[in-house]
Amino acid sequence: MNQSKLTAAIEHLKSRQNENPESLQEAMEERKERIEFYQNFNSAKLLSMTEEVFYKYISRLWAMIIWGNKKFVVDKIIADNGFKEVKEQLVNLLFGSDDIIKRWDTFLKKIKGMGPATISELLSYYYPDEYMIFNGATVKALTHLEVQNLPKYNYQYTGKKFIEICKLGKQIAAEMKGQGIQDTTLLG
Q1: What does the alpha-carbon distance between residue 150 and residue 147 come to, in Å, rounded to a whole number?
Q2: pTM, full prediction
Q3: Residue 180: partners with Cβ closer than 8 Å, 6 or more residues away
Q4: Which of 3, 80, 86, 150 could make an SS bond with 112 (beta carbons 3.0 to 4.6 A apart)?
């Protein structure tokens, strides 16, 4: 990672935050509300949710913004995988006892229609100091910081790569905190 580019990016972020502190406050409040919403779903609540609740659970994700007809996407996830299997795999992903690399890879192998952006977003809501969103925007930002060996294809978004990216995120968050940035969770 290019330290001078990271420092410049943090300085740019600080200046934007100083120019518009209301926007920063709104963003922080939105992230807090999202974290609270998702953390309200423990294992039992996930396993017992109805398809209607699942729709609300999935459709709130930032990863779903691109979809005009979110109901179609959610219905397809259920049809392609079986609702019971989706719920069980979500519980395993979010609360399982295996290491996250195995849980990540298992989920991606078993569940169609929910990729790295979706599952990393869910993980980041449950564990915002541990996991970050892993999507094209993340890769683009890390490319700007000259991080090497970033994924180019979907099959490269593995659990191992996810953990590597989260470690980088933690380093960046520590640098941001050291330079006075308020919100340094990996979700921010």
Answers
A1: 7
A2: 0.92
A3: 14
A4: 80
